[in-house]
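Suppose a colleague, Dr. K., hands you the sequence of a protein chain of 354 amino acids and asks what its three-dimensional shape might be. Before reaching for any lab equipment, you can write down a predicted structure in token form. Begin with the sequence itself:
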Amino acid sequence: MKANIVLLPGDGIGPEVVGEARRVLEHLARRCGHEFQFSEHLMGGASIDRFNSPLTDETLAACKTADAVLLGAVGGTKWDNNPPALRPETGLLGLRKGLAVFANLRPVKVHPALLGASPLKPERLEGVDIIVVRELTGGLYFGQPKKREIRPDGIEYAVDTMEYYDYEIRRVVDLAFRLASSRKKKVVSVDKANILETSRLWRKIANEVALNYPDVTLEHILVDTAAMKLITGPAYLDVMVTENMFGDILTDEASVLAGSMGMLPSASLGSSGPGLYEPIHGSAPDIAGKGIANPIGTILSTALMLRYSLNLEKEAVMIEAAVDAAITAGCRTADLGGKLTTRQMADEILLRLV
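The predicted structure, expressed as tokens, is then:
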């Protein structure tokens, strides 16, 4: 098959890990007889420096016409003091909104060979295989009004608003139930319904969606309980669905289970159009340019791309199996206690891509 893939390397270690993921995709295309065409565009801080915009109209237009988009990471201390419109993260939020990707899938699976890489006791990690479904285009990150002002009496204050509409909740919860239908038939919905009106609406809609899936069990838990459950009994969880900010925080916490944030991929999906794929880690400016970043999260994100956007399940499994085999063989980057460089880790995966 032919596919047009837009690459957004971004900032920090983004170009390094995206470069290795591209090598994997090119190798796979040659091996399996596919034609992947790549185009690369600036985004985030790199785009600010070049175009004075974290996401240009041209870049967004290219993404909208692609079959899939692979993103590295955005951000860095260099742009921390910029006004909101000129922050790299503003470009990321704009990209998600522009592509209408409303659900972020973050699989968290613990490899048996990496049980010792997590600070948790190995017995707590056995059998952990979770998918977190995070709502991506609503909630606190997008709610209006947003403002930061100084009152006449000199007191400075800021306002962010958490805002949700019923259809935003319904579509992401429905996706979680569809995923659960082919897994363990259990959905855990995470909210803060004892305090927040948005969470009370979330819980109401989740109960309504559950009626359409009588073979799937729905459990509601508060976000603070979910945070504890991820550490004390993660194997209990299967499909978790939650709003934007809660999902952002909980999945970063969940990366501890896998041993490193560099291990985890993600897929951002909408009702139609290209999906957006990226590792969950940030730009890590402290190690940028050193060639030691873990490329696995980005490479596994390409497997999700093959699965969800290009309908190439066999090829997705090939990449996942190659990563699994490399880890089993003891291949490790520095974040996992090893000495392999970014390129060497990708080379080990390529060797096993059969």
